């Protein structure tokens, strides 16, 4: 089918498409990307692009901006960002990174930013979405809630909604930054997820600063 997950295998930190008993290396990963590859191949075939041409091109494709985008890497540590904010996309992104790098610690940081995600009645939809993260962190800005004219929510409400007793919840950006800067990052992947920017953090610059401390 057009949107089936393309046959693939994983070797170390890389995903390979399986094509006629050959392995085509990818720079991207995750079930969502592999489904999109199947769909893109069908479209390209309709445009008279051959399979060989398609697979040659897709092996160099680095992915869409803000979709599991690699912000920085150094030694054994990678920092990604993703536009994920809805419960289904949040879970899919967390699972994709943990599935690609199962042996590495996953630190997943998500911002509640959209109208629905900051709505107390909707929060329970996030139950279990970050369970595969070794350390899960959620941030929200009370000023955004006020601006959207929503009812206030508490950090405890957020923690209970995610059904993750180890979840860390921050509503102060400076406290969030301080926590991130104190993290042990070797042999880890750090994943930022938001449709916003964590109240003004320039994520690429921040990622490079974090990794500059690694020896």
Could you characterize what this model shows?
This protein is α/β, with parallel strands linked by helices. The chain folds into two domains: 8-58, no CATH class; 69-212, Protein-Tyrosine Phosphatase, Chain A. The protein is 33% helix and 22% strand. It has seven helices and nine strands. Helix 1 (31-46) packs antiparallel against helix 2 (51-58). It is globular.
Summarize the structure.
The chain is of the alpha/beta class and 215 residues long. 33% of the residues lie in helices and 22% in strands.
Task: Name the descriptors.
215 residues, alpha/beta, Protein-Tyrosine Phosphatase, Chain A, 2 domains, 6-stranded mixed beta sheet, 3-stranded antiparallel beta sheet, 7 helices, 33% helix, globular
- Structural class, by secondary structure, is alpha/beta
Number of strands: 9
Q: Strand fraction band?
A: 15-25%
Mean pLDDT level: 93
Cα-atom Rg, whole angstroms? 19 Å
Overall helicity: 25-40%
Unreliable sequence segments = none
- The CATH superfamily of the largest domain is known as Mur ligase, C-terminal domain
Give the count of structural domains.
2
User: Major β-sheet, in short?
Assistant: 6 strands, mixed
Write the layout of secondary structure elements.
Blueprint (H helix, E strand, L loop, with lengths): L7 E4 L2 E6 L2 E4 L5 H16 L4 H8 L10 E6 L2 E6 L4 H14 L4 E7 L23 E5 L2 H6 L7 H8 L5 E3 L2 H9 L6 E6 L9 H10 L3
């Amino acid at each position: 089918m057009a949107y089936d997950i393309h046959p693939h295998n994983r070797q170390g930190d890389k995903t390979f498409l399986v094509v006629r008993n050959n392995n085509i290396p990818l720079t991207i990963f995750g079930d969502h990307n592999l489904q999109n590859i199947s769909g893109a191949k069908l479209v390209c075939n309709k445009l008279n692009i051959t399979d060989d041409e398609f697979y040659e091109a897709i092996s160099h494709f680095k992915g869409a901006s803000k979709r599991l985008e690699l912000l920085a890497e150094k030694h054994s540590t990678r920092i990604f960002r993703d536009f994920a904010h809805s419960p289904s996309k949040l879970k899919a992104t967390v699972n994709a990174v943990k599935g690609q790098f199962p042996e590495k610690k996953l630190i997943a940081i998500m911002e509640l930013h959209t109208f629905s995600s900051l709505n107390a009645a909707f929060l329970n939809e996030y139950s279990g979405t970050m369970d595969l993260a070794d350390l899960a962190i959620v941030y929200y800005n009370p000023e955004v809630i006020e601006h959207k004219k929503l009812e206030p929510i508490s950090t405890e409400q957020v923690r209970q909604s995610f059904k993750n007793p180890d979840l860390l919840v921050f509503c102060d950006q400076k406290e969030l930054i301080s926590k991130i800067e104190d993290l042990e990052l070797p042999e880890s992947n750090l994943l930022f997820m938001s449709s916003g920017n964590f109240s003004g953090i320039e994520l690429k610059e921040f990622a490079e600063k974090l990794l500059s401390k690694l020896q």
